[in-house]
Write a structure and sequence with these properties.
This protein is an alpha/beta fold. The chain is built from 15 helices and 17 strands. It folds into 2 domains: 268 residues, UDP-N-acetylmuramoyl-L-alanine:D-glutamate ligase; 134 residues, Protein-Tyrosine Phosphatase, Chain A (Alpha-Beta Complex), CATH 3.90.190.
Length: 422
């Protein structure tokens, strides 16, 4: 099938439609094709790259690293996926999204350079981000690894540090169904001559074995550094270094991972600078407050580990006497039962929404998995997130908290609904 190739004057939307059409598979594991293109166009030798892998916490760790580096006057390029509302969210220079034309120029350059090598949507987007960084030349580049690590398109670069945030079960059909198997895939971003930082609190043996095999030096949570969260402070300790910092708006575990990465690279600023950064750091879609009256939060939690963190946040409000209402929308290939199990103790009222996106599940199917975890569960089904929000808002009062969660698509729908509402 012949596809009409967009030009440098085409719209970003035209290019994204083209990217979706040129490869027969949504996910095509392997680095051969991507590396061929990357080496040809000079992407594999980009300087000062930090690779960030993990089941959860990649986005918040990257945001934390980005903010701390920017506070010291460095320029920073950041690549993350997926996006919530706009494709432009995937690539940032100095914390800011880029205009459409920058993405179009990068896509055009990549299209001209790839020849007849086929690329998936994600691979094309990843290489285009590297093209942006090649042109903009930031001091540091933060690459959020997509699926796994070993075979992810980001893994064609040579990093100055490799970071693993957490290990949990997700994408089991690609990464394996045990933490040992998943850990080995994530450890595929390690290099013999670059330090590795692992923030997981129960590091699988497969990570240690692979690091030893490579000769990679690993700095590990609870072994080489630690953190403690109290009501008023986050205390971080690494060797002789002790920092007392404000309680962050993102998971303390990810903050500690970011601090350790910068400490390892001799890029950690003074405590005062860190305190200012953490006091103002928020990340979209991670227990994001959409409204204070009524009280509405949105969270992309879609696997057991992220759901457990969400439950801890909801528990804080339950302790204050809040009545917690949940509106959940999830993808078909997620462990819905485990997610529901993780949050069920903190939810008083359930609403389930169908998602119309690719792999989006129907509310009726969600209800079967909810019943499996809460036998006598009561719930209301909705045809969409927007319809669910419209319905729930009619009954909310000042004692209620609504949490919208279950996937990036669910949160994106909630944010879009709220923007239209305003």
């Amino acid at each position: 099938m012949t596809h009409v190739v967009p030009s440098q004057s085409s719209s970003l939307e035209d290019w994204l439609c083209y990217l979706e059409s040129i490869h027969p598979q949504n996910i095509d594991m392997g680095l051969t094709r991507v590396r061929q293109v990357g080496e040809k166009l000079g992407y594999t030798s980009l300087p000062n790259v930090i690779l960030i892998a993990g089941t959860n916490g990649k986005g918040t760790t990257a945001r934390c690293l980005e903010a701390i580096l920017l506070a010291q006057g460095y320029s920073v390029g950041t690549y993350a996926s997926p996006h919530l509302i706009r494709y432009n969210e995937r690539v940032r220079i100095n914390g800011a999204e880029l205009p459409d034309q920058d993405h179009v120029d990068a896509f055009h350059a990549l299209e001209q350079g790839r020849g007849d090598i086929s690329l998936t949507y994600f691979e094309f987007g990843t290489l285009a981000a590297l093209e942006v960084f090649k042109q903009k030349q930031p001091d540091y580049i933060l690459l959020e690894v997509g699926l796994g690590g070993r075979l992810d398109a980001t893994n064609i670069v040579e990093p100055i540090a490799s970071v693993i945030t957490t290990i949990d079960l997700d994408h089991k059909e690609y990464l394996g169904d045990t933490r040992e198997l998943v850990g080995r895939e994530k450890a595929g971003i390690f290099r013999a001559d670059a330090p590795a930082i692992v923030g997981d609190l129960a590091i699988p043996q497969s990570i240690w074995h692979y690091a030893e095999e490579l000769g990679t030096h690993v700095t590990a949570a609870q072994k080489n550094y630690s953190y403690r969260l109290s009501t008023d402070y986050l205390t971080y300790q690494n060797g002789d270094l002790t920092l007392t910092l404000p309680v962050p708006n993102i998971p303390a575990q990810n903050v500690a991972t970011a601090l350790t990465t910068l400490h390892t690279l001799a890029l950690l600023p003074d405590q005062n600078t860190l305190s200012k950064v953490l006091a103002n750091l928020t990340v979209e879609g991670r227990f994001q407050c959409l409204s204070k009256q009524p009280l509405v939060f949105a969270d992309v939690a879609h696997n057991p580990e992220s759901a457990r963190y969400l439950a801890s946040k909801l528990g804080e409000f339950k302790a204050q006497g809040k009545h917690v209402i949940a509106l959940a929308g999830m993808l078909q290939d997620k462990d819905q039962k485990a997610v529901f199990n993780a949050v069920k103790a903190e939810v008083d009222e359930w609403h389930l929404a169908s998602l119309s996106c690719f792999r989006g599940d129907q509310a009726e199917n969600l209800s079967l998995n909810l019943k499996a975890e809460i036998v006598d569960s009561q719930f209301t089904l909705h045809t969409s997130v927007a319809q669910g929000l419209t319905s729930v808002f009619k009954t909310m009062d000042e004692e209620d908290l609504l949490i919208v969660f279950g996937s990036f698509y669910t949160v994106a729908d909630a944010i879009a609904f709220w923007q239209n509402k305003e």
